[in-house]
Structures are given as structure tokens and as C-alpha cells.
Amino acid sequence: MIRRTLQSIRRVGLCCLPLVTILTVRPVAAEELPVNWAVYGGNSEHNSNYTISQGAAAEALNRGVSWQFAEEGALPLDLGDGKDADVLGPRSAPVKTTQFLGNAVGVTVVGDTVFAESDAGFVYALDAVTGRLRWRAPVDNAAMGNPIVVDGRVFVGSGDTGFPFSQVMRAMAGETGPLVRGLSWAGVYAFDAKDGKQLWRFGTRGEDMPSQCYSDGALYFANGDGHFYSLDPATGKANWITDIGGFDSMSSCLVVDGKVVAGFTDPNNLVAVDTKTGAIAQRTDFPNVANTGMGDNSPTFERKDHEIIQVAVTQTAKGTQGDTVDLAVFAVDPVSGVVRWKTLLGDGPIPPAFKASVAMTHDGVIYVSDPATNTLSALSGNDGSVRWKSSIPHTYPTGLGRGAVTYHEGVIYQATGAYIYAWDAQTGKLRHELKVGGRLGIINPVIVGQTMFLANSWGWIMALPLSEVDGQMQRRVSLHPQ
Amino acid sequence: MIRRTLQSIRRVGLCCLPLVTILTVRPVAAEELPVNWAVYGGNSEHNSNYTISQGAAAEALNRGVSWQFAEEGALPLDLGDGKDADVLGPRSAPVKTTQFLGNAVGVTVVGDTVFAESDAGFVYALDAVTGRLRWRAPVDNAAMGNPIVVDGRVFVGSGDTGFPFSQVMRAMAGETGPLVRGLSWAGVYAFDAKDGKQLWRFGTRGEDMPSQCYSDGALYFANGDGHFYSLDPATGKANWITDIGGFDSMSSCLVVDGKVVAGFTDPNNLVAVDTKTGAIAQRTDFPNVANTGMGDNSPTFERKDHEIIQVAVTQTAKGTQGDTVDLAVFAVDPVSGVVRWKTLLGDGPIPPAFKASVAMTHDGVIYVSDPATNTLSALSGNDGSVRWKSSIPHTYPTGLGRGAVTYHEGVIYQATGAYIYAWDAQTGKLRHELKVGGRLGIINPVIVGQTMFLANSWGWIMALPLSEVDGQMQRRVSLHPQ
Asked: What CATH number does the domain containing B404 carry?
């Protein structure tokens, strides 16, 4: 029924790559795959690049493995770009598949297991080497995050993007006060990592779409009812609950300097809360943000300059009625909450659901895509100056590059649309592109050894050898369906 | 896992029923179970009371059969009133189960098959005699209606109650123009009644929660994007599409005098459209309606007085900010669209989702419940005068009696909350009550011969012998789980 077809591979000619690029690559040693996946992307830089030297899967993942796993309801990968609308109905189908069918963001890898959350209401645990299903657990609504795995427990949030009519009525009546996002059920779940047995569920009024973060014995999250929560990971009981106001759509939290940080909409604030007490430490107000352009994007830590990078879709000179938005990258001081610098990446059409992108930082450089202009940029963490900016080929109408990219040995890997791109980290030159089909939504590629793990919004979880993803390397493993 | 437990039976003492009631009962012959189920409830009076003299199931259904079928995700029936909140989270759980889990409205019976739509995204076909599953077909969102079955095809709509943030933003900005209801996918499906094979799907921008209606070779429906549609039942191609404005939440259509009629919100109109051309024939404006109180309720035809009965939740003197609403029953002339009379049933707390109720008419009398005051009334179709009004026992906090009742041989059967009630149609005296557990949401009992068919919002489809439902009769079949 589901055709497991990976599309034909296109290679960028080697002739186009200047020799100097290869000479100036400075491979920086990646860290070992952590035993706990405590934050979205696996680390606060959202650079999901890991070595693996221990465990049963190490040898295979260092060689590079290839498999494709079709989740329940998966669409054929060779349906064609944007053709999900033909199957799923006329209304903004790309947004709907992102929100209701497959995987909104990327996967989690711990030990020899790949964990993924599906918008169709399931959590999957697969064998990282073979792609075989270990377990599947149901949740009560879409699961849009990156599973957090700590001490043998898998944490997953559920929720949806909707508003009930009562919220529309309030807005029509001009009433003030925070909106609550989330139509159907919502909660944060804990499962046993071994067998998927549900350990507890913590229900909330608003949606719990953002990923949680774990630090020092507590699980944190912000959500659609405008609160920050701290839970005991063992029992699911609340340590504290703090009313922030507004709502967090998809801004996954981060712990920096003893404060847990996430973005909120209405008002558009980056909020930092004391991890121990739940007291609001600071609120950074971002002016001119469009729609949910703030609470829809996860903050990133830039370690070298010790700052928080937040991306937001902002209004252009045309104002809220305009058809274009500008993408703003902000650097925020974690101690004071003051904005250090702001860089605008340029006007372009409104991305799907007003989502900006998630920045990735590595060695003082910020790699950030702009889904309004379909570009990828490298910014200096020091002052936000643009080092290079490249256009992403094979544009959808708009909305490419919403997920974080991954830095690995001088190469930036990007999964967006139907393609995986390999860019030179120094120059921004395209090294290679690989068409895998389907639609890679807000996906960050996870690299472990010589294997890349992905999930897409058409309901697929995949492993690919890096040798396939970057044509510079020798092809070692077949990409054809198993 | 699911405990199939029917709760203990409570009987109302015979001593309380005056002899005169029994003497004045006028049994009116019910019609034979139709070969096509062309409208919500099976007929325009929404009185789902049928005899059965032909077909394989006739003998068993005339004796009375008993079975309970648990759908996917069904909650235990003995969980306790309102306890679904404990399982499903803190946010208005009764509304959520109604909208996302089990069966929003009642079942359809054609031949020896029971058809039911589930909010969990499935259509079920069961053997009417044994309750055994014949087939189950998936749809892409909640299915909240009453399957329409004509010429071997089963028609089902999908959708949800949500609004995307863009609609909230428009309301906040004070923009005018019709709202569109529906967050995720929506469409009308046709399945083969024999095996559940999907024949076609017609996708729409807004939700398709109301039931369709069939007349003279065409399938009609109104929906969340504020249009009336006429489709070819064989192909799913549109005959015509008419832009009405506003949105229809759960107002299932009705064909009267060559016009198809349904209720809309924003503005609160009962709209009649020419079945052949799609031209708007008339619009009746209902003033003072609260929230979705209009487009959430299906109109009913009152044959004796040749009028359309529409129920709506209206504002009280306290206005929109009040905690109470009044339930209004309107009689509308089908030719002119003019309101002939209006009866207010009294103030009470706001019912879940602002839903009023669906009226049932029989022999010039309108039987209508008021979920604001938890009462059942009989009104004269001629002038709307109240013949009797009775309080429904075992109140939920609010919201009883949202579904249509059923008239059978001088008895009014009502399925609401955890109970089935039998009322004397002449006097409104309670004859009997039977606790079945779970939550009967907007359910109309379907009576075929001596068997009652129900579905509930906790995910159950059931058959019960009438002898069990009305303690006046001798108990013949065990109610205990099979």
C-alpha cells in the first residue's frame, strides 16, 4: 500500500567546488552520543552531531546504516512535491500534514534506539541499526516534539494548534487577557524506554506541543495555557507552576545559567524562569513580531559568546496586512535579558504557520535558515554580522529551512522539503543534494557516527549513511528500499 | 481492558403512574424501517421509530436483542458520571469526549446493519442482531454525524470544531467577513455499504460535521466554510456550490418543499436553498442567539402544521456576559421563511458547547429538551404552547437532553447522560429509567421493532430490548455483558 521509494539521486558536479574550501575545513571533535537526551536536539546548541564509540550499535552506525520506516498513515514518498494536497484535501495541506500526520520535528537517539513523536498520536521506538519497531505507544492528540529521554524514561507532550470558538468570541468582543491554545486533549506523558509502558500523564488545559527539557532532576516545559511547569520526572507531580500569560506554541525550552527559557506569543516575550523556584527572572519583549512568529520558535544557546539566540518572524514596513515578513535573529544576554544585537535576514512570503526557524550554533557561528526567503545564513555570534548567505535550491512556494541544521566535520547538513543538502560551513557553497522525497518539515538531521537519522511530516523515519548524503564521500550503502 | 459493565437498573414505582395515562395512550402505527436512511434520524421528524416485518433481522429485532460493542479507545461504562475528566484531562472533558472520542449523535439502521460514525475517525458497520463488526473504515478527522445510507452507499462527513490562529487574529483585528470553522482535514466520504470500501472523498476547506441529507438523486450538506453543497452520490462531483456565509457547526440539513434547509452561525440564519439550482430561497434571521447556538442545532419538520422547528440557545436579559442562557423554540413557515411563533423554555446554565437540542415531532406535538434547565417539554405544533414540562432526573451539572427523543406507542424514549428514560407522551410522567453508564451525548434512540439502538460519546454502540428500557414490560433478555 505504502510505496517505500526513495527518489533518484542528483549530484552537484565536483567541478564547482573550489579547492580552498576543502583545505580550510577545520573539523571540530563532536561529543559522544549522550546517555540522556535532555533537550530538543540533544544539546542546547541544537547541533545534533555525535560520535559513538560504545554500545552494540556503534560499529554499524560508524559504518553507516540505511533503512526507512513507514508510520501509520504515511504518504508515499514519491507522491511529488506539494502533492499531499491532492490526497488530503484543498486546505493548506502542507500545514495540515505538518500538524496532523507525520513528524513535526526530528528524532531522538539514545543508545541503540531511535525515538520519534508522530502527529498522528503515537510515539515510536525503533532499533537504530535495523529500523525495526521496538514499541509504539498512543497519546491522546498530536505529538509534535522531540522525545526527551532521561534515566530510562521517555517524555512526550501532546496537543494541537486549534482554538475553540469561545476564544474567537472573546477576540471578537475585544476582550483582553491571555488566549489559550489547544482544542482537544493535551498532556505530558512518561513512558518506559524499554517497552513503551505508560508511567504517568500530566494533563493540562492548553496544548503541550513544545518539547520539554530536563535539568538537575526536574522536567520543564512551557505550553498553550501560558504556564511554565516543573515536574518530578519519576511521578509526574508538579514541583511548581508559573503563570506567564500568552501561549507557547512550539518554543521548546532550554536551561541556561539556572533559568529555564522559552518563547511566548501574546505578548511576544522570551521568558526566563528560575529552575528552583519558578519565579520569573526576566522577560525580553520582542517588538513587531507577526502572528505566532515568536512562540513558534525554539531558542538556542550560543556557548562561545554566552548568549541566547531567538529567531522570530517580524512584520515588514507593510505591516500586518502585508504579504511579506522579515526574519529577525536576536541575541539575548542570559543574565540581564537584554537584546545584544538583532539581524534582519530580509523580506519574503509568509512561511507556513508563521514559523521562523531554529538556529544552530557551533564554535561562535550561528547557522540559521530563513523560510521567508528560502536561504541559509552563517552569522557571527559576536555581532550578528552575516558571514555568508546561500539560496536553498528546489524551493517550495515558501517555507524551506524551518528546522535546525547540523554541523559535522566542516559540513552543514540541512533537511528541508524533499531534499537533504550538504553545505560547506566556511563558504556556504553547496556541496551536494540528495532527494529523498516526501516533506522534511521542521526537521534537524541527527548524526551519530556515519549515520544520519531523520523523520518527515509525511510519516517516515529514516536512517541514511553520510556517504549517501554528501556526494564527496564514497558511496557505500544502497539507498534502495529494503 | 475495557470493562463491558452495564450499571444496575433502577425502577420507578408503578404506584406513581395514574391509571388514566394508560387508558389515553394512542398508539400510532410506526413506519417500516426504510431501505434508505436519507436524513439525520431517518426521517424529517427525527423520530427514529420503525417497525420491521421483512429481512433476516426482523424476527430477532421484534423479539429484542441485547449487545454492547466497544469502539477503539472506548472508556469503561462504569467509570462514573463526569469521571472521564479524570482519565482525559482537566479541560472540559465532557465536551472533549463528545468531540473527539466516541459517537456525537446516534446510529443509522438499514436492513440488518447498524452504521455509526466515531469522533475517533472511524465509520463502523455492525450486525444489528449480534453486534459483530462487519467493517470499519477510517476517515481523516472526527466523524460526528449520522451516516446517510442510500442505494448501497454510506455517506459520512469529517471535521473538527477548531479555529486556526489566523481566524483568532482576524477577530482580534476587528475584521469582518465570514469565519471558517475547522482546524484539520475535512471532507465528505462515500463508502460501499457491503464492505466499507471507500468510493470517493470530496474535500472542503471547513469542517463537514453536520450530517448530509439525500433527496431525489442528490446529496446535500452545509459546512464549516459556510457553503451549501449538492453532490452526485455516485461520483462525488459537485452539482452546485452556494456561498452562504458564516458557518454550519452541527446543523444537519433537511429537504422541505424542494428546498434544502440548515442553520448557520455568524450570522445566525436558517437558510433554505433551492435543491435544483442552489439559489438561496430564503434566510430567516434569529435575533439574540448566543455563541454557536444556532448553527449547532438541526432543524426538524413538523408535518401536521407543515412548519420547520428550529431550537437555539439565546441570550438572557443578562446579555452575552451572563452565566445563563434561554432556550428558544421557533416555528418557521417553509414557504415564506417567516417565524410563526417562538416559545422560550426558561433560563439555565450554558450547556456544553452552547448546544441547544434537536426537536422531535409526532402527530402535531413537538417534543424538545432544554439542556439549560435539564427539562423535557411537549409543545403544541400549532402555537408553541407548552402541554407539559418535566425535569430530567440525575442531572449532570448541565447539558442533558441535547439529542432528539423517540416516540414509540405512547412512550417518549430519551437517552441522555448515563440514563435512558421512558416518559408518558401524554402527561410527561416518568415511567422508568435505566442506567447504562457512560455518557449519552446528543443521541437519539433508534427503535426498530422491539430493539433500541444507541451510541455514546464514550465509544460504545449498543442494542437493548425495549422490555429492558421500559419497566412496564416484562424483562425478557439479560442486560449483562456478553
From this structure: 2.40.128.630
B163:A166 CB<8 A: no
Q: Measured between CA atoms, how close is A366 to chain B, in angstroms? A: 30
CA distance A89 to A144: 21
Whether ipTM tops 0.85, in short, is no
Q: Which residues of chain A have pLDDT under 70?
A: 1-28, 89-92, 317-322, 396-398, 472-482
Query: Nearest-CA distance from A185 to chain B in Å?
Result: 7
Element (H, E) at A98: helix A93-100
Residue A130 lies in a domain: yes
Q: If DSSP codes are grouped into helix, strand and coil, which group holds residue A440?
A: strand
| Residue carrying the nine cell digits 460493542 | B69
Query: B168, B241, B265, B313: which to substitute to probe chain A, counting the most A Cβ within 10 Å?
Result: B168
Among A163, A165, A223, pick the best mutation site for testing chain B contact (most B Cβ within 10 A). A165
Is position B238 within any domain? yes
pLDDT for B28 equals: 55
Whether residue A202 is contained in a domain is answered as yes
**Cβ neighbours of A182 in B, within 8 Å:** 91
- Does residue B89 have a pLDDT over 80? no
- Between these two residues, A477 and B271, which has the higher pLDDT value? B271
C-alpha cell at A43: 544539546
Distances (CA, A) of A82 to A1, A95, A437, B95: 20, 11, 11, 35
Q: A415 lies in which domain range? A: 14-292+411-469
* Predicted TM-score (pTM) of this structure: 0.88
Q: Which three cell numbers stand for residue A362?
A: 557551533
Cross-chain residue pair A163–B161, CB shorter than 8 Å = no
Name the minimum distance, in Å, from the CA of B114 to any CA of chain A.
27
